Amino acid sequence: MNRPGPAALRVRQAVRAWHAAHGPAPTVAVALSGGADSLALLTGVLAEGIDAVALVVDHGLQDGASEVAARAAATARDLGARAATVLPVVVDGAGGPEAAARTARYAALDAARDGAPVLLGHTLDDQAETVLLGLGRGAEPVRSPA
Questions:
Q1: Rounded to whole angstroms, what are the CA distances from 55 to 79, 113, 118, 124, 139?
Q2: What pLDDT, in 10s, does the model give residues 30-84?
Q3: Residue 92: how many CB atoms within 10 A of its CB?
Q4: Are 109 and 29 in contact (CB under 8 A)?
Q5: pTM beyond 0.85, yes or no
Q6: How do beta strands 27-31 and 118-119 pair?
Q7: Contact call for residues 47 and 19 (beta carbons, < 8 A)
């Protein structure tokens, strides 16, 4: 029998704590990119016995994006998500490509969530990338209060 590792246990503990504090919601939507962070979140939600639907946003920004989104949705169903929906979006608008993609993504998730809370998984690498992209555009770094 495979036992979950420390990282998987931490994800499950975080999901359990969130669910106890904010619900319990009968169903949660998990924003799924197909990457390790969102797959770990979906797996943790399902391991906790929470009904989950996966929402996969297809930004269409790279060749093959729709195939990647379809694979992520299929993986979600294979893992046990009750449903997995691919949400194609158009990325345009102010603030650069990252901001426009984020705006389109959040609007699509909000429209598709059917009242369920949406959970998003981000690793520290994602947060570091966001800071680096901001610094590359000349933005001031965000500092923690002293």
A1: 14, 8, 9, 22, 31
A2: 999 988 889 999 999 999 999 999 999 999 888 999 999 999 999 999 999 999 9
A3: 10
A4: yes
A5: no
A6: parallel
A7: no
For 14, the token pair is 């975080």
Q: How far apart are CA 57 and CA 47, in angstroms?
A: 23
Euclidean distance between CA atoms 84 and 121, whole angstroms: 16
* pLDDT score recorded for residue 8: 86
Distance CA 106, CA 57 (A): 9
Nearest to 44 by CA among 24, 68, 17: 17
Q: Which two tokens stand for residue 66?
A: 């729709």
Residue 136 has pLDDT above 50, yes or no: no
- The rounded distance, in Å, linking the Cα atoms of 50 and 48 is 6
